[in-house]
Amino acid sequence: MVRSFAQWLLEHGTHFRVIEQVDEKLLDDLRARHRRAKRAVLDDFTGVITKGINAGCFRPVDAQVAAFSIIGMCNWTAWWFKPAGTRSVEEVADVIADLAVRSLVRQDASEEGAGGPIALIRKIEVDLAHLSHMIEN
Q: Are 97 and 2 contacting, i.e. CB atoms less than 8 angstroms apart?
């Protein structure tokens, strides 16, 4: 999902910048469509992140803040990415997707080092945070 979104933005950066800069000047109907589209993207990302948290695959974080962060990371490419640069659209989209997913994925105790009591305590803390998040929602 992140890769596809990032790739689209990388390929349409100029269009994205123009729309973002003239948003307030758009005709009411176009502005409303643009804002609905932005809300749909946020809702889609938030929903996927929430499902990942509820499944125990993602760390228990604020799903909407995480979604805004990932979307922002993708959006910002419209200002800095240069097609003639050293990385292709696909390479940059892959890096962004990797960073986004790694920021959310729960680390297993076995990935945290040698294991032992400290790693076990960390895993229990993550599990408790996840359980607390599920109870609150």
A: yes
pLDDT at 110: 38
Cα 122 to the chain's mean position, in Å? 24
Kindly report whether the global pTM for this prediction surpasses the value 0.85: no
Give me the number of domains the chain comprises: 2
Distance CA 96, CA 44 (A): 18
Q: What would the two tokens of residue 98 be?
A: 């990797």
Residues 6+ positions from 64 with CB-CB distance below 8 Å: 42, 46
Structure tokens at 41: 């993207």
Q: Are residues 68 and 128 in the same domain?
A: no
CB 23 within 8 A of CB 75: no
